Amino acid sequence: MSAVLQSRSASRRKILGDDEIDAYRRDGFLVPRYRLAPAELAHLKGICDRLLADNPPDIQNVPITNPHMPYYSPLKLKSDPEPWLDWGTRPELLDMTEQLIGPDIVLFQTAIFHKKAVTGGRAPYHRDGRYYPIRPLAATNVWIALTPSTIENGCVRCIPGSHKTRDPGKHHWTDGTGDELFRIELDDGEYNVADAVPIVLEPGEMVFFDVMTIHGGTSNTSGMPRTGVSIRYYPASSYWDREGAVNHAETAKYNDFARRPLILVRGRDASGRNDLVTGHPQPNGGYVIPD
User: Fold this and answer.
1) Domain boundaries in the chain?
2) pTM value?
3) 289: confidence class by pLDDT, cuts 50, 70, 90
4) Fewer CB under 10 Å: which end of the chain, C or N?
5) 191-197 — which CB contacts under 8 Å span 24+ positions?
């Protein structure tokens, strides 16, 4: 596996309009006019459905992280990485990402968020910036709807303008007795849930949101599952601080940030500090592990 996996197309398309870029800068999130074509949606939904079918059902109410790197995922996924890597380097997604974070792009995570019908848990409100050892902190997440994402089935909700503080805010651990998908949650005094905007999406639509945007979602008590795929990128002008990753040990159930494999998917390592070797499989079948 190469740690440099460039997009198939060297051309750059300006898919997002200036008004859309302005909205992303203002609100910290954007539902673009662009959406997947029916054949693309069917392909992405097909590989997602296959992964859900091939793995134990008890993983379905937690974020299913990094199907593009199944040897790394702590969930011990059975997954074919190639189609997921293909989506991580999809030219149209990278073209839009470049318009938001610049021309040098590192892929650092893929994930499936699957809320089962009736029993799908809530996503506590949080900032993704709480998790990632990216210095300086900058990243975007594209969340692609594979099923209708509605108020009834627990769509993502974002708080406009909450990304502007550039401070992750105070989070706490929940006691784990509720139906939350994960246990880290923003303190109540950090946000007003009434400010959250539901991001209602049709299949094939998507939302980009900044790493500092407060977001969450309610439980799915409807009879319809809600499934989406998340792909996360950061600008290579920033770097992944593997030494500082020990400060994120509380998320070790889902992540080993010190060993996270990174892939340069467009441009160059502008920071000169990104370790693009650690965590990738080696010819001898092992992995490069940091000291």
Assistant:
1) 27-266
2) 0.92
3) very low
4) C
5) 191/125, 191/159, 191/162, 192/159, 193/125, 195/159, 195/160, 195/162, 196/125, 196/157, 196/158, 196/159, 197/157, 197/158, 197/159, 197/160
